[in-house]
Design brief:
Elements: H1 8-12, H2 26-44, H3 60-63, H4 76-83, H5 85-88, H6 106-109, H7 112-121, E1 123-129, E2 132-138, H8 147-159, H9 170-179
Antiparallel strand pairs: 1-2
Length: 193
């Protein structure tokens, strides 16, 4: 039987590592055990009633996953920055030809129940803002946000960038949510609104 030829490329390679019967070092096992024990103790001693202001500002009701749960206050500016600014921009000017502006928009400054219905159900189709038609899509936030949160972001939008409309209450949002509870599709732009 012939020995296979060893190529120069193979001669340059290091041999594959082989652990053999070497055990895991004892200090590594002890360190891992201590870290696991610390994690268990830390979680077991955590206080679920710690004020939200100590962390990221959210309370247990917000973290429950129930959109109907609301908190005493909601930060409309923070909600706008995280949910709306990507499309409508931080200055409320929108993106020309794509996303409508919120600054000076007749939909924002008009009837608060119409604006609430837009946030709750979304829009898909042509919408005219300031004489310009936008044909995009806006998502529904009724499953994602509670009434207090929608009221906060809508109040923020209605009071920024030169807008001077009155704040919206959570009760108004609850009334509009009940009014449109059977709606499963977004509004079809101008024709539905």
């Amino acid at each position: 039987m012939n020995e296979p030829d060893i190529l120069p490329q193979q001669e340059r390679e290091n041999p594959d590592p082989y652990e053999g019967t070497n055990p895991v070092p004892l200090h590594l096992i002890v360190l891992t055990g201590l870290l696991v024990a610390f994690g268990i103790l830390y979680i077991a001693q955590a206080d679920i009633d710690t004020p939200g202001s100590w962390g990221d500002g959210r309370l247990a009701a917000e973290l429950s996953g129930n959109p109907a749960s609301t908190v005493a206050t909601a930060d409309g500016a923070a909600l706008y920055a995280s949910l709306c600014a990507a499309c409508h921009q931080s200055g409320g000017q929108g993106l020309p030809g794509v996303f409508p502006p919120l600054a000076g928009s007749e939909w924002v400054l008009g009837n608060e129940t119409t604006a609430a219905a837009i946030l709750l159900n979304g829009i898909a189709g042509p919408l005219t803002v300031g004489g310009t038609t936008y044909n995009g899509a806006m998502p529904s936030f009724k499953e994602q946000l509670g009434d207090t949160q929608i009221a906060a972001v809508l109040s923020h939008i209605r009071s920024q960038w030169g807008n001077g409309a009155a704040a919206v209450t959570a009760e108004t949002i609850a009334r509009v949510r009940e009014q449109h509870k059977d709606r499963t599709t977004p509004f079809s732009g101008d024709q539905d609104l």
